[in-house]
Amino acid sequence: MNIVVNEELKAYIDPLSADEHDALERSILAEGCRDALVLWGEVLVDGHNRYGICQKHGLPFQTVQNTRFRSLEDVHLWMIDQHLGRRSVSDFQRGVLALRKKEIVAMRKGRAALPASEHDTPADAQPADEAAGAMSADAASSAPAPAALDSREAIAKAARLSSSQVVMIEKIQKQAAPELVAAVRSGTISINAAAAVSSLPVDEQVAAALGGKQELKQAAKRARDATRKPPKEAAGSAAEELSSAPDSLDSLRQRVADLTEENASLRRQVADLQAALGRG
Questions:
Q1: How far apart, in whole angstroms, are the C-alpha atoms of residue 179 and residue 94?
Q2: Which helix or strand (DSSP H or E) is residue 274 part of?
Q3: What is the pLDDT of residue 272?
Q4: Model confidence over 53-67: pLDDT tens digits?
Q5: What Å distances lie between residue 21 and 17, 31, 52, 213, CA to CA?
Q6: Is the whole model's pTM more than 0.85, yes or no?
Q7: What is the enclosing helix (H) or strand (E) of 37?
Q8: Nearest to 75 by CA among 21, 138, 2, 13
Q9: Distances, alpha carbon 73 to alpha carbons 69, 78, 83, in Å
Q10: Average of per-residue pLDDT across 241-260
Q11: Which percentage of the chain shows pLDDT scores above 90?
């Protein structure tokens, strides 16, 4: 069997961490490749890690055809939905994937609204590789129309996040330096803190990301302090305490939110190692 690895598809979803990949390799060596690789014609859609491990060790594997794909958009939407449902995917990754899905659905909606004479054939309307041309006629079957993600609440529901988290992820995508994005992807910094740091100049973001977790925490504090309004001057010390109390309360709430998110991140990292066996 000829299997084609499309590099764009392989890179479409964030790769496994080194620990997750090692755990998957140990599992396959002990129990074999239990889950079938998903193909589109000859193009590998799901199971790149499993395929690589099986090739490395000369192990057998099963394949299954998905005959509902008509274009790379169909493939991307399927891949997104698969990963949105996996427990091992982080909150940030799920938010990014849901936002990608929103863009694809919006483009499809825009094309559907055009008069028939103005419809352009999408650039990805053909199989992802010429080798996939060997697909059966069933492969042209229509894929089900994805649900519209036309509101922030809908995006949040698809990603199992809060609307405020979606807002922060959008901010990170628009403003964060690549080094800061890498830090939040790896769990070095929380979504909340990364959104704050993304408001700093790019050189400060990069320096903080390269400096590690403590530097990022300090950068997040600087960013939040810079956006707070200074307390109003008051005649007496009692008035000064009252004026600063809301700011102190905000700080405590922010700290609680950060600690809660960091705690959840640690739990996810433990779950990731356990769930890696089901990823590939």
A1: 19
A2: helix 237-275
A3: 65
A4: 999 999 999 999 999
A5: 6, 15, 11, 24
A6: no
A7: strand 37-40
A8: 13
A9: 8, 9, 15
A10: 62
A11: 57
